[in-house]
Write a structure and sequence with these properties.
Largest sheet: none
Oligomer: single chain
Number of domains: 2
Order of helices and strands: HHHHHHHH
Radius of gyration: 21 Å
Low-confidence stretches: 9-16
Distance between the termini: 61 Å
Shape: globular
């Protein structure tokens, strides 16, 4: 019991020492204490992951000759562009008003909802699910779970900060997670499911419709916020 207590104290001291060293640097201090700076860093990382995932889905689209994954690639490319548009908000170089950026982001989210509706239609139209192998499923599951965890963690922290930039980035991340869950579902069904099972198309159609409603709802909430900023 005494050894466990000493070990815990040593671990706490080591963690405190590491945080102290990070705080000693200007960038580290801003990263730990400045929520907006942290949002920019995570936003840049999120934009990079969105674009990488767009390329990943494009490769799957070519490999499996799937318009569904091609649409998913466009979906993530749009999200990456949205993040790039939001990141400069509040900086001296950005001459746009926060209301204008918020309104344009809400409109872009509604367009993403249209893209998502196309994915739902393709779910019904495509008669087969491509088997991409277990490795691809594991990679997509890892990405989805990590993004879900970071998005939930960021959303909880963003509740204490009412900045427009954090609000927009949080909602873009949520839409990103919704898309990755749909892609994971389809890939798992193609890899582990029974080919041609009618219930799979119904499952995908229902989940896709639900995702569409959520994305459109987020877009409308962003537009409402922009209207209130007038």
């Amino acid at each position: 019991m005494i050894l466990n207590t000493e070990q815990t104290e040593n671990e706490q001291k080591a963690a405190g020492g590491l945080i102290g060293k990070v705080k000693d640097t200007e960038t580290g201090k801003k990263l730990l204490e400045d929520s907006l700076f942290r949002a920019v860093v995570t936003g840049i990382l999120g934009m990079g992951w969105d674009l990488i995932y767009a390329v990943f889905n494009a490769v799957l689209a070519v490999q499996g000759r799937s318009f569904w994954f091609a649409t998913m690639a466009a979906y993530y490319f749009l999200l990456g562009c949205m993040r790039a548009s939001v990141l400069p908000v509040g900086t001296r170089r950005d001459k746009r008003s926060e209301r204008t950026v918020t309104r344009h982001t809400g409109e872009a989210m509604l367009f993403v909802g249209v893209v998502l509706s196309g994915m739902v239609c393709l779910t019904v139209a495509e008669e087969h699910h491509q088997n991409f192998g277990v490795i691809v499923v594991i990679a997509m599951a890892t990405y989805t779970f990590l993004r879900t965890g970071t998005t939930v963690h960021g959303a909880v922290k963003a509740l204490r900060d009412h900045s427009v930039k954090l609000f927009l980035l949080r909602n873009i991340s949520l839409i990103s997670v919704i898309g990755s869950v749909l892609a994971l579902q389809r890939t798992m069904l193609g890899t582990f499911g029974v080919p041609g099972a009618r219930s799979y198309y119904i499952m995908e159609g229902v989940s896709g419709l639900g995702a569409f409603v959520i994305v459109v709802g987020i877009g409308i909430s962003v537009l409402v916020k922009a209207h209130k900023m007038a």
